[in-house]
Write a structure and sequence with these properties.
heterodimer, A: 292 residues, mainly alpha, 2 strands, 3% strand, B: 451 residues, alpha/beta, Rossmann fold, 2 domains, seven-stranded mixed β-sheet, 18 helices
Amino acid sequence: MDAQAFLLQLLTGLSRAAILFIVAAGLSLVFGALRIVNVAHGSFFMVGAFVAATIMRSVEGLAGLLLAIVAAAAVVAALATFVEVAVLRRLYASEHLLQLLGTFAFVLVFADLVQFFWGAQPRRVVQPEPVGGSVAFGGIIFPKYSLFLIGVALLLALVLWALMTRTSLGRDIRAAVSDPEMLRMVGVDVSLLFTVVFALGGALAAIGGVLVAPQSTARLGMDIDIIVESFAVVIIGGLGSLVGTAIGALLVGLTFTFGIYFYPEAALGIVFVVLIAVLMWRPHGLYGVPER
Amino acid sequence: MERDRRVPGRRGSSRARGRTWLALLPVLVLAACGGGGVDDDDGAASGASPTTAAEGSTQDGATEEDPSEGAAAEGEPIKIGMPTTLSGSIALFGEANRDGAQLAVDELNDAGGVLGRPVELIVQDDQAKPEVAAQLARDMIIADEVSVLLGGVSSAAALAVTEVSEERKIPFIVHTSNTEALTVEQFQPYVVSVVPNTGMEARAQGVDLADSEFTRWATIAPNYEFGQRQTGTFVETLQRENPAIEIVEQQFPELGESDFQPFITSLLSADPEAVYSPLFAGDLITFTQQAANLGLFDEVYFTALYETDALQELGDQYDLDGVRAYSRCPFTVDTEQMSAFVETYDERFGEIPSDWACMAYDAVKLWAAVVEEAGDLDADLFTETVEGFEFTSLRGETTIRAIDHQASVPSYIGALELDEDLGFYVYGDLQAVPAEDIWLSEEEITELRGG
């Protein structure tokens, strides 16, 4: 493996990890606080991508991308709020299977709704001018957009870290992860907190969808595709841990891209071997805590 | 041919529709609470009601047209069952299947039906799952009493449906799914194929490209039956035609991959001169953008299944000039039938028909012609009649070969060039590689079937 090949795989791995982190962070956040595995998280991601496709066709450039991020986050946060209030709230006391089926029902509903509103044609989203095209350095040609994604993921990680450690909302969320009953007793409206966390998680998925759209397409089926790898990320990192999610995303992204280079037949398999190895070593993931 | 049709932005009202999201929230509640998704494992399958566009539009078509052309069809309708994929990542193909077949059915009805009876098309969503497709096929045969089954998109689903066709003795015409197994190893007397199969397609490419100056090849294909089979045959043909050719890298991303970059960079690092790919639809669109930004098209000669849908969506942003594209039923084929079809289809659906609409249309028309010739709906009579049957398809004159019921349709190859009027790339210098040059010989088929 020469230096150029290494650099190419490394950078593609990091940009893959960037998207995984953004999507998986929301999944992990929701699980940590609500203890619900939200299979419909991928659906929020897909809705975000289609919102981006619609907005970025009419508003060009970075303004379009920013507008799409805001709009997709808002639309999906509203949808997520509805899902949480109308259905999930009734399932917190139920067994895991029922919760899983409950969120899975939304996977089907959202897939049909997206097809109803946007049709079955995959939507290409033009990369906004300043981050479109490619740049040559170190003997390689690399897409500017992928570098941009890596930057955005770092920024989001910072914002999330600040949110969790420097705000009262973050403090409440962390408290909810360890003991929601205690939180309720000190007078926090836990029910409202759960709604907010679920909406926030959905918004993160939507932002991931917006960011992915210009690199791939907005298309049916992307909901299911993202959810498998995202689960691998949060399980490796430990459900509920932000740092764990970041490490999980890097591990999955890089293992996959270097796996593709060295063992193309088995790349996805290698990711799951890593997953199994981590679980054997730490059954709750790298930074996970045992279920309460 | 005429080319001034409106293409881009045909679903332009999506923004307005987006606003209806909120208005539709109550529907969501009902769907979520009512369906429950708990007790009904195939909720989606049984929920997809016998679609669809079928009945409504049949009537539109029939009443609007001038009925003087043929005697009005009377009696119980003859039903055609089509399990195809209407949801998920390849729904676009299934929708084109449905629209193309419906157009053919409406034309048949306007011309007096088949055997004097009206024809009705039933389309249901197989979710690209073999077990769902087989179940739908059974239900269509038993409950709806369909007289013929049309195929869908997925090869795996077609392999499941062909078993039902054999067991129930109902003709089955495949038009989009094209694994060669359908007409070779898994052949059964009631199957007919109007699509160039994976073998023909890959051999056409192999024959076309073996003479090129390139000796270092790489491949990238979706990781399932179709992709593996097509790549295998391509490589085999290429190396048989030119033993000097070396395969330096092979990648098999999952179907629906959204990030092909690590695959593309791996290909580039292997330093090939040319890359072959049977990626298609959304995957191909994604791949093309990412490959363009990684400089793949500057460094290597590239060839892939750029069908009309993908080309329209890609538009003119990336430089695809000279990329070698192959197609199964391109709208630019120069026949009277194709020109008329493209015009009618555009009028009705507001878009250029894709390969998938074109071939489904051919499937219906072939079935009708065979049944009219046979004078009866009997399946064994159908099989007897179809062998050696000569038929004018959208792609010109074609014959159904007796040994494998494969239509002698060509495989099309061209070099992409930008059509300024349409605003997207089309096939320049379109060549039709004749079926006779690329299908398996009768001896080879007999041997593969185990003598």
